[in-house]
What we know:
Layout: H1 10-15, E1 25-30, H2 36-49, E2 54-58, H3 63-72, E3 81-84, H4 88-92, H5 103-122, E4 126-130, H6 132-139, H7 142-156, E5 162-167, H8 178-183, E6 186-193, E7 201-209, E8 218-224, E9 227-231, H9 253-258, E10 268-273, H10 279-292, E11 297-301, H11 306-315, H12 320-325, E12 329-333, H13 341-354, E13 359-363, H14 365-371, H15 378-391, E14 395-401, E15 418-427, E16 430-440, E17 450-455, E18 458-464, E19 468-469, E20 477-478, H16 489-492
Helix pairs in contact: 6-7, 13-15
Amino acid sequence: MPDTISTGNAGLDIILKGGLSPRRLYLLEGAPGSGKTTLALQFLREGVRRGEKALYITLSETAEELAAVAASHGWDSGEFDVFEFDSAAEIFGEGRDQSILHPWEMELGETIRLIQEEVERVKPKRVVFDSLSEMRLLAQDPLRYRRQVLALKQFFSGRDTTVILVDDMTGKADGRDAHLHSLCHGVITLERLTLDFGAARRRLQVQKLRGIDFTAGYHDFTIRTGGLQIYPRLIAATHHGEFADEVTPSGVQGLDNLLGGGPLRGTSTLLTGPAGSGKTTIALQYLHSACERGEPSTVYEFDERIGTLMARGKAFGFDLEKHIANGTLCVEQIDPAEISPGEFAFRVRREVEERKARMIVIDSLNGYVAAMPQEQHLILQMHELLSYLSQKGVVTLLIDGLVGAMTTSLNISYVADAVVLLRFFEAEGRVRKAISVLKNRGGAHEDTIRELRVDAGGIRVGEPLSQFRGILTGTPEYLGIRGPLMEDRDRER
Length: 493
């Protein structure tokens, strides 16, 4: 017999390090609408796919309702046996005298007996019991309820059957039953969280699993046509890969000189500055250069529309459409109201592991934060994602906006390996741009402040502005002579 059996859900199998131990009793709990029935159906369908008998015992839903849930995912509930209690008459029979025992005592005992008879008849290898809440109501007495659950466990003990008990956690003051947890071999909890705005967030947690070294913690998931899409929590340390320690030039000599030739493989660079200072343009310069070298690259657009990004690239002579057409470049539009940190990390992993992406651009961190205003520990999740990309040798460019003084929406600067600061300054009645590198863990970098010019001809980086002051105050001012300042290209001709 196999050490583990698949749950029918690829993401959950990853979390469980292969699947569930066979011939055991498991608890699947969660509030109504959290996805329990869908995951239970996936479990049974996997058994059917393997040629196993499967049985769905339903006390809470009718067979018709179950068929509708299955049909919504393109499945057929006729693939497996469904045992439904149609009415009290099925349990008591017509004209049965109920004067000696309380009705609920007879009802629960007969329910358990009928379930056992159906299991004996079908001889399934996989069973879903939906749900314990109805059994709790039938028992009325907590002690009697727990005894019946224990009786069910003993009934299935020794049989070649893996059982999932479904519980919607209603009828319990604290929401969870510690005694029930102790009876089961494993406990999986599904949660549905309603946010102030946007789609509800769903997450999964394996509470316990005897004998299996599962991945602990919360794992985001969504319910899509075809079942639950579970995004296992990212652990960067388990994804190390070998890569060459080399720089990635932008093709603009002045820009590369600032970072000692360019960002190193496996490093993250934060491009920070106010709106309109040239952050996205610099990112596009590095991106275009990577695509020209044939390196698969991906852009995640939280803020701008893809059409706007394409138009901006075209204005600077970057033929992004060509690279999209040949598969080198992928641009993904992210809807800020519809994504969780786990799903975003999953998308990034898919690009790196399936498309072999060598450069990732996140535009912008402000949009990332706006997408997840109620998520906790965003900085830790971003740190784990950047560590993963570093382990894979991916060059990551992060765009973050500044407003007024040097403040950002997410304190990510200490996590990034390099920080490039862009600022506006005033000289001779014109608003100009300055660029400087605050740090570069990957190697040497210039400590000068240079002028940055962006026009139809692309990016230019000027000479050091030695008499430039106020860069850290948020209101830079240039007091030097006119000589170092760059003019328009047509004047130079």
